[in-house]
């Protein structure tokens, strides 16, 4: 006997609310309904394993069928099914006080105890259907029932002649959603969301032709096989002890077919205080430190949720690739939910810790291999240290600095390495570094002649990392090799003796100002070694850092670049070439020598180009 009733909601607008707020993508309906079918099947398998269901399970494949003529989509499972009472409980009694409360309450509702998760996920069917039928028969000894609803709050429930255990949901697809009445389209959706689900999902059949028999008697035979979406169990759900390196690499190729092999990986597995499994891979990071939104896939019980993990993973971890699966994250979540959820924050902290522990373990147990991979690991570690305090606390022990001779040191090792010559009068270790060995070679050689060690710091993020390092390590200061004359890079109380008198030094400054034709320049004379360049152009460390960081951020860089100031011109008072300038009596010849010394300084920085370079070459020929 058929019965009619009203779904227990206090608003006529429940379905528009579902369509507008609950789901951002309409193809989610298929994920939800298939997930319900999988849960219903697993529930029955659990009862069977407990001895509470002793009948034949037979084939539990979930079938997704399309009828183009009638514009219907059917999802059929052989799971636990529902009685009429359970249909009333889990489908009809969506009892919320109003539209706003409905949307708000959904994000916190625990649907894991609902048979087959019928409820709000089920109502996603009305995103694409004008009319929905549910034909279900419980595993219990109860009559089958049919529930129908046209998208209003009115429904009808009646007896059904369904003989097999399980549930079939029939969607009568509306005109706006006819794109989904297509088998290939449904396969696409399920390949995205459901290819790792634990119960087989069939969408149609695959046909192929094979030869049967031999020679002239051979005939073409058509082979028809079910098209199963999910053919393999995801390796993140397996025991790591049962997996080989080849298993992990094959899975990586499956996820990212066009990528280079990863350097190494972490298999995540935790069941308290939250559940989490997954595999995170360390790709070969070069100059690109832009987090990719589609490289880490988030699942909930093997159901794909999103590949945008911005609210779950710290920024630097989004450089990694892989999969995270946690049932503690609902299938349908908003950004605000992720930002405020306690479990999400715990997951983020846990993953950060596991990544740091993995790197620390590699560093301690196989430092040689760790150093070989440092070019890629280094960008990742430095980025993490700058952006995540918890990671910084662990990473400072295994973060490495590379000397120009190729040797690698951690911070404490490097302080010990340079303590003999590179500690200033304030008792700070001075780490000298080069950002461009080609253009800074003369400065590097001058430093190395004094016995100084120079670090290689030429990656995209090193300018930020250097400032971050000084902020964190109060006993370290870092200076670029061309930020001052070699004698002033490390401030001490020792000074070189000058061969010039004060009067000669002042005269020299006036000669340079006149010869260079720029009254705004403020050359200074300094006592350096005789074999150093006659003139050096340097930029104070603080000014250069401001320019570099502003340039990376865009607009401000142009402003700093346009100021044209900041360069320091230092005249080597002990240079024989400078003595020659002083001794020259003809202004014209003096000017020529000054310009030559100045152009030589510009040349060492790679800043002498065009007509200025041509003049320098012609002048060199005259002076030879």
TrEMBL record:
Taxonomic classification: Bacteria, Pseudomonadati, Bacteroidota, Cytophagia, Cytophagales
Example of a GO MF term: ATP binding
Domain of life of the source: Bacteria
UniProt similarity note: Belongs to the heat shock protein 90 family.
Record protein name field: Chaperone protein HtpG
Gene: htpG
InterPro entries the UniProt entry points to: HATPase_C_sf (IPR036890), Heat_shock_protein_90_CS (IPR019805), HSP90_C (IPR037196), Hsp90_fam (IPR001404), Hsp90_N (IPR020575), Ribosomal_Su5_D2-typ_SF (IPR020568)
Keyword hit for Nucleotide-binding: yes
Keywords: ATP-binding, Chaperone, Cytoplasm, Nucleotide-binding, Stress response
Binding site for ATP: 32, 36, 77, 82, 97-98, 167, 335
Cited Pfam families: HATPase_c_3, HSP90
NCBIfam families xref list: PRK05218.1
């Amino acid at each position: 006997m058929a019965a009619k009733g009203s779904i227990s909601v206090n608003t006529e607008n429940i379905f528009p609310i579902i369509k507008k707020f609950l789901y951002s993508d309409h193809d989610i309906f298929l994920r939800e309904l298939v997930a319900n079918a999988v849960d219903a099947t697993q529930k029955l398998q659990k009862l069977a394993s407990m001895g509470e269901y002793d009948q034949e399970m037979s084939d539990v494949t979930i079938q997704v069928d399309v009828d183009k003529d009638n514009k219907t989509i059917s999802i059929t499972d052989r799971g636990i099914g529902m009685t009429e009472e359970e249909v009333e409980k889990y489908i009809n009694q969506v009892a919320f006080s109003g539209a706003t409360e409905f949307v708000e309450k959904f994000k916190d509702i625990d649907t894991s105890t609902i048979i087959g998760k019928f409820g709000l996920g089920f109502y996603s069917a009305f995103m694409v259907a004008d009319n929905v039928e549910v034909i279900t028969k419980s595993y219990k000894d109860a009559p089958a029932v049919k529930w129908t609803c046209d998208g209003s709050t009115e429904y009808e429930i009646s007896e059904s002649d369904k003989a097999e255990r399980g549930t079939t949901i029939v969607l009568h697809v509306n005109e706006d959603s006819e794109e989904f009445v297509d088998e290939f389209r449904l396969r696409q959706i399920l390949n995205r969301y459901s290819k790792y689900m634990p119960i087989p999902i069939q969408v149609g059949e695959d046909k192929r032709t094979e030869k049967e028999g031999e020679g002239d008697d051979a005939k073409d035979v058509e082979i028809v096989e079910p098209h199963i979406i999910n053919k393999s169990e995801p390796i993140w759900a397996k025991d790591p002890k049962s997996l080989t390196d080849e298993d992990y690499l094959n899975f990586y190729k499956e996820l990212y077919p066009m990528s280079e092999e990863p350097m190494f990986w972490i298999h995540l597995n935790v069941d308290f205080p939250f559940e989490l499994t997954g595999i995170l891979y360390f790709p070969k990071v070069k100059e690109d430190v832009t987090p990719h939104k589609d490289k880490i896939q988030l699942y909930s019980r093997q159901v794909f949720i999103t590949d945008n993990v911005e609210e779950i993973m710290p920024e630097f971890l989004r450089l990694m690739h892989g999969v995270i699966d946690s049932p503690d994250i609902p299938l349908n979540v908003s950004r605000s939910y992720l930002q405020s959820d306690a479990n999400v924050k715990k997951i983020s902290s846990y993953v950060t810790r596991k990544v740091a522990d993995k790197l620390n373990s590699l560093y301690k147990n196989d430092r040689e291999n760790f150093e070989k991979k440092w070019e890629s690991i280094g960008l990742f570690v430095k980025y993490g240290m700058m952006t995540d305090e918890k990671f910084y606390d662990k990473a400072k022990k295994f973060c490495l600095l590379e000397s120009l001779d190729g040797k690698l040191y951690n911070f404490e090792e490097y302080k010990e390495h340079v303590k003999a010559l590179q500690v200033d009068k304030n008792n700070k270790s001075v780490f000298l570094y080069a950002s461009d060995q080609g253009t800074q070679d003369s400065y590097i050689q001058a430093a190395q002649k004094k016995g100084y060690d120079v670090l290689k710091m030429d990656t995209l993020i090193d300018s930020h990392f250097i400032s971050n390092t000084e902020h964190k390590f109060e006993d370290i200061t870092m200076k670029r090799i061309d930020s001052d004359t070699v004698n002033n890079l490390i401030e001490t109380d020792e000074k070189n003796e000058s061969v010039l008198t004060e009067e000669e030094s002042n005269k020299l400054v006036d000669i340079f100002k006149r010869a260079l034709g720029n009254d705004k320049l403020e050359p200074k004379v300094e006592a350096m070694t005789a074999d150093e360049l006659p003139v050096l152009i340097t930029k104070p460390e603080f000014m250069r850092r401001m320019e570099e960081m502003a340039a990376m951020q865009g607009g401000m860089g142009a402003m700093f670049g346009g100021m044209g100031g900041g360069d320091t011109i230092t005249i080597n008072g002990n240079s024989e070439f400078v003595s020659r300038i002083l001794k020259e009596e003809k202004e014209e010849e003096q000017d020529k020598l000054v310009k030559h010394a100045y152009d030589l300084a510009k040349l060492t920085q790679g800043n002498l180009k065009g007509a200025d370079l041509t003049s320098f070459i012609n002048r060199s020929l005259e002076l030879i």
